[in-house]
Specification:
Layout: E1 3-4, E2 11-16, E3 26-27, E4 31-38, E5 41-45, E6 48-52, E7 57-60, E8 65-70, E9 75-81, H1 83-89, H2 95-103, E10 106-107, H3 111-128, H4 136-157, H5 169-185, H6 192-199, H7 203-214, H8 218-236, H9 241-247, H10 253-264, H11 268-274, H12 281-284
Antiparallel strand pairs: 1-2, 2-9, 3-8, 4-7, 4-9, 5-6, 5-8, 7-10
Helix pairs in contact: 1-4, 2-4, 2-5, 3-4, 5-6, 5-7, 8-11
Length: 300
Amino acid sequence: MDSELISDFKARLSLSRMEEFSKEPSVIDYGAIVSTKSGQVDMMVNFKTWHLEAGSVIILFPGDVVSTKASSDFLADVLSYDPAMLREASLQMEHAVYSQLREDRCRGDEPIVSDLVGSMFRLLHVYFSQPENRYADQIVLCQLKAFFLGFCDFIERHPEKGVDRMASHRVNELFNEFMSLVAEHYRDSRDVNYYADQMNISPKYLGQIVQQKTQHSPKVIIDHYVVMQLKLLLRTSRESVKQIAWQYHFNDTSFFCRYFKLRAGISPQQYRELQPSDAGFRESIEPSRGSPSGAVNKRR
């Protein structure tokens, strides 16, 4: 079980095995910095897999699709924070730099990065272990600002060390825009042409970009994202299947049920009955007080 070092703030510091992502991919609604302490994990983020070992650092953004396959001794420091805090921390960053940060979100081969992140986590552990710390959010915000600016400075000064050398900057930028649009409009449209039009590119070109980045078609990515959001809603809300179908602009409930069953293997109602109640991230990590030892994609 994860040990948690904060309570009701906009940010959370925990020592985690990230087991909530091991069963099936999930869409996160928060940002996070993950620093591997022990073991190793293959973490899929937006349909690309990253291999993390001790000392590796990865940045997660709201709307990211995440799944993990970890060794039995995997353990990581996780600083998570809500989208509003992420927006404020990255306010001084240009859109191009922000996009680059998403492209180069993982570091395990640069001692300076792991040292800086390690120092940040050690400092936050000290602050968050204090009872009734009224300034925890402000402290996290300052640390996030320093981290993002420092990380961006590093990757700008060392472009040759980019982790995605096979794809051009333009391809990365367009893929990030596509994922951002899917995260923003997945309830409105599941049509590839819709997203290509939003990006002012052809559906064929969009297909080439997504295929290059994920080995999947845009339609597969869109439908996968929609189904993950539907699963989350089925677990966390009391809305009827009919109401959910209406929210997602399905023509009728029967079509919605066929769409879900084709991709999930069971009907929405069956999925809901099989799943334990889950209030998402904020309740998926049960607090364990007294155990302090224990990668937004906002369009700008």
